[in-house]
Amino acid sequence: MSEPIVKLQGVRRVFEGGRVVAVDGIDLTVQPGEFIAITGHSGSGKSTLLNLIGAMDLPSEGTVHVGGIHVTDRRSMERVRSEKIGFVFQMHNLIPVLNAAHNVEVPLIPMRMSSRDRRKKAEELLELVGLGDRSESNVRVLSGGERQRVAIARALAHDPPLLLADEPTGNLDSHTGDEVMALMHRVRAETNAALILVTHNEDLCATADRHLRMQDGHLGPAD
Ligand code: ADP
Ligand code: MG
After folding, report:
1. Considering the entire predicted model, what is its pTM?
2. Which element (helix H / strand E) includes 185?
3. How far is the CA of 33 from the centre of ligand 2 (A)?
4. Is 80 exposed, middle or buried (0-12, 13-18, 19+ CB in 10 A)?
5. What SS3 state is found at 72?
6. Side-chain half-sphere of 12: how many Cα atoms within 13 Å?
């Protein structure tokens, strides 16, 4: 078996001097290309968990490995974020003064790549998410669903082996949300990336390789 893309061992994350236990001893191994859906009530620790896997935060206890990198400090966090992870948030977190293509190019800026190649990659990704004709549009003029599609293109820009999505349709109406979810599904199939998706969409959970539930900081099978 190949090396797991994610390996968490005994991961805990507490806040406020231990009064708040957001993630309470999680073991999780995710294989390359695997699709994991996570559901759970608000406040159960889903975002905290995703932020730990996404190397945006460090655990209070336990170990986090992503793509073979042990996440322990600023340096390893940055390396994981730039090489291993594409993150799609509930809020699109795009840069409002930039057009769609420039937003998609942002993760490519630290790489050794000509501006022409960067632009080409951004246009290909916008094509992939069905926005090939909007690359010059300022993201402020795009609809909620279109912005989330730009955010997905941006998450894919550096070809990460792992996509993380934290309720990516939480701010969209159900029809637009379904379209964005269908897109997540399609890009995953085309990129072979593993996907860890926090969602309340039951249909989508049914298509996942594994459906897990967060409950009071614990992660277990959904049924
Ligand atoms: P979910 O995404 O499932 O809604 P979160 O991971 O956001 O849950 O939060 C889990 C718990 O941790 C909640 O009780 C929340 O208030 C708390 N929490 C999350 N982040 C922080 C923080 N930075 N400081 C203090 N408490 C936090
Ligand atoms: Mg959350």
Report:
1. 0.94
2. helix 174-191
3. 23
4. buried
5. coil
6. 12
